[in-house]
Structures are given as structure tokens and as C-alpha cells.
Amino acid sequence: MSGARTQTKCKPVLPWFVVFFAFLIGSLVAIDLLDVKNPLIANGLILLSMIPLAKAGLNASANAASRGEVGNATRNYLIRMLVVSVAYIGAVFAASQLIDDGDPVTVLSVIIALVPGLAIALYFWAMGKYLAEQQDEFLRMLMVRQALIATAIAFSAAAIWGFLESFGQVPHIDAYWWPIVWFLGIGIGAIFNKVQYGTVGEL
User: Fold this and answer.
1) Residue 155: which residues within 8 A CB-CB, separation 6 or more?
2) How far apart (Å, rounded) are the C-alpha atoms in residues 45 and 108?
């Protein structure tokens, strides 16, 4: 009975992440191949890919909540990440619609352009809150290890590309891509944790 109850409470998370990455990559490839110029259409396609990501987050949050007090830190972390993700996506979408190339720089345009970057900063705040709230030392260590691996990957990639770019060997990449590389590094760190410790923790 308890096994059946546990099974029904455990909602799938990884398949939704796979769908998200597949949809996101497919959207980016389609935008490039079809040479989509309209930012509304391009951003709309990317926004659609966020639906399976939100589903993965909601399922993971529900799984954490089913563990009672033990899962509180994880549940709170996932809820914060979902809220920040919605804020980030909405800010990028709004900025792309409200600011056009060649528009004069105003106080309002600067504020609009700042919001997506501030949303990225909130991701790190959410992770810091998780580390502060997580009472399990092993789970905290897993997250710290993921963060260190992600930092090594992102900073190394930024430094290598920066030197290549400064000597004219590669094209310019906007700086906001490096936090994205960091978040991909979090996923790589989770794989390292799984290989070495047999678990990725609760996340």
C-alpha cells in the first residue's frame, strides 16, 4: 500500500526536461534555418519551450512536498526558480518588443533592459537561499559541488573565448551567454554527482 502511494506521488521530472531541451533546440534551429526576423515569432517559439520546463519544475516541487519537512528546502528552491524563470522570460520578451535597434537611450529603456539581468541575479539568490535552508549536509555538498563545477566550466569558457575573440580568431558573443553556460554547467555537475555518488540529490 505504502509503495503504491509513493509511486503515485512521484511525478516524472527528467522526461519533461528532455522535452524542454528538444523543443528549445528545435526552436532555435527553426529560427535560424527559416531566418525568422520577426522578434515576436522568434520569442514566441522560445516561450513555448518553457512550458515543459515549467511542468518539470512543478512536478519536482510536488515530489519534494510529498517528503514533508525534509523536502521543504527543495520545494522552496524550485518555487523560487519557477517565479524567477517567469520573470526572466517575461522581461526578455517585453524588452525585445519595447526596445528596437536605433531607439534613443532613455531612463525607461535602461530600466527595461536591466530587468532580465536582474532576474538572472535572482537565480543565484535562489540557490543561496537553498544552501542556507538545506539542513542535510550531504545534499548541501552536492549542490555546492554542482555550483563549483558550473563555475569552472563557465569561467573557463568565458576566458578561453575572450582571448580567442581579442585576437580575432572567433566572433563576438554577448556576455549574457556566460550565465547560461553556467546553468548548463549545473546540469553537467549533476551528472558528475550521479557518477561519483550515485545520486543527484533531490533536485
Assistant:
1) none
2) 27
Q: The C-alpha cell of 196 is what? A: 561519483
Closest CA to 147 of 118, 189, 85: 189
* Residue recorded with cell 543527484: 200
Q: Pseudo-torsion of CA 169, 28, 120, 116, nearest 10°? A: 100
pLDDT digits (tens, 9 = 90+) for 98-156: 887 778 889 988 998 899 999 999 999 999 999 999 988 998 999 999 999 999 999 99
Residue type, 42: A
The grid coordinates listed for 160 are 578561453
Catalogue the long-range contacts made by 37-45 (C-beta closer than 8 Å, 24 or more residues apart).
39/96, 39/97, 40/97, 43/92, 43/93, 43/96, 43/97
The answer to pTM > 0.85 is: no
**To 5 degrees, how large is the angle CA 105–CA 109–CA 114?**
115
Does residue 20 contact residue 53 with C-beta atoms inside 8 Å?
yes
Domain ranges of the chain: 1-135, 136-203
> For residue 147, what is its C-alpha cell?
555550483
Q: Check if the beta carbon of residue 78 is closer than 8 Å to that of residue 109.
A: no
CA distances from 197 to 28, 96, 189, 192, 201 (A): 34, 43, 12, 8, 9
Q: Are 134 and 193 a contacting pair, CB within 8 Å?
A: no
